[in-house]
Design goal:
The protein is an alpha+beta fold. 27% of the residues lie in helices and 33% in strands.
Length: 109
């Protein structure tokens, strides 16, 4: 277990679709003061990162920054559930008829 620390480290890994970089900065501090910068999209990983750092550090002011970039991969595909969309459209028309209002709904509606 490290008792005192001051330092900086950076690592990077990449694959066909993503590039991930991680920076760790630490300065001497009496207690463990820990801060993680992580995209909200990956917030579920914060506790795992916190536990991993606590395993090796007992003290210090530590800042961990994780960046995830999409770098490639295939194009995203979009599939529309046409049956569901048609069912919504029919339900809107039926509702308009019941309410006696115009049923000229556009896509934005």
């Amino acid at each position: 277990m490290i008792r005192s620390m001051t330092g900086f480290g950076r690592g990077e890994a990449s694959g066909p679709e993503y590039r991930v970089s991680c920076e760790v900065r630490g300065v001497n501090h009496r207690y463990l003061d820990f801060n993680i910068r992580l995209s909200r999209r990956y917030a579920a990983l914060e506790e795992r990162i916190r536990e991993r750092v606590k395993r090796d550090l007992a003290r210090g002011r530590v800042e961990v920054t994780v960046n995830v970039e999409r770098v490639g991969g295939g194009e995203r595909s979009l599939q529309v559930d046409k049956e569901l969309a048609m069912a919504y459209h029919k339900a809107l028309i039926d509702l308009a008829q019941d309410l006696r209002i115009p049923s000229d709904f556009g896509l934005i509606d």
